[in-house]
Amino acid sequence: MMDSLKIATLLLLLSNFCFCAKLPSSFRKCDRNKKDFNQCLSKAVEDAVRQLTKPIKELGLPSMEPLEVPSLVIGAGSGAVAFEQNYQNTSVSGYGKMSCSKAEMNFETKTFYVHCTFPEVKMEFKYEISGRILLLPIYGKGPGAITLERVETDLTFKLDEYDKKGVKYFKVANVTLVMDPQLIRFKLENLFDGDEALGRNINSVLNDNWKEVFADVKPSYEDAFGKIYFSIFNNVLSKVPVNELFGDT
């Protein structure tokens, strides 16, 4: 009877104890009370992403070099790109060379913003498409790659604060991503059931008209990658308290 009472008491105590995760010692920490807080944040994001050559399971962080995306769907555009892009087993590389020049955390509006530059982002995947591109028919299924060069990104997270066992946490309410590449190169293999001549022609059309092609599906790319970043950041926020991330008030 006494043992049962001790166990019940222990369980009650544990239920009210917060098992809060801490950032890895190699991650840069930034103190909201210091003048260089926002400058520190930009470097902290850059350093953390560059370190993610393998997952950190206790924080729910995946490897970012490369980032593996099992399924990626880019919706059809309203003009040049009249087909849905379905990519499977997508491997995204380039995060290891990103640099972040600006970051801001506004605790009043609970908004986190970061601007980062990627020299190159390469997506390698298995694709399946059928439709029209710039009024030309296109269909195929096979391996492919899309390379985005000199990509400027603006990422804004709107956060909500909540209390868990007396400890304050953030969670992502919504995310806005803006992507501005300076050049895009397409390479889709096995187009038109392996017709090499037609395949070369369509790849040339895509590469020669990349600005028009990307502009038509830009919101879909931003939405798809925004959801990925939403999930990754939310995993960290759900485990690491506000004061561990940004210092005490």
TrEMBL record:
Residues 1-20 form the signal peptide. It holds the Pfam family JHBP. GO terms for cellular component: extracellular space. Belongs to the TO family. GO terms for biological process: circadian rhythm. PANTHER family: CIRCADIAN CLOCK-CONTROLLED PROTEIN DAYWAKE-RELATED, PROTEIN TAKEOUT-LIKE PROTEIN. It comes from Asbolus verrucosus (Desert ironclad beetle). The lineage of its organism: Eukaryota, Metazoa, Ecdysozoa, Arthropoda, Hexapoda. This is JHBP domain containing protein.
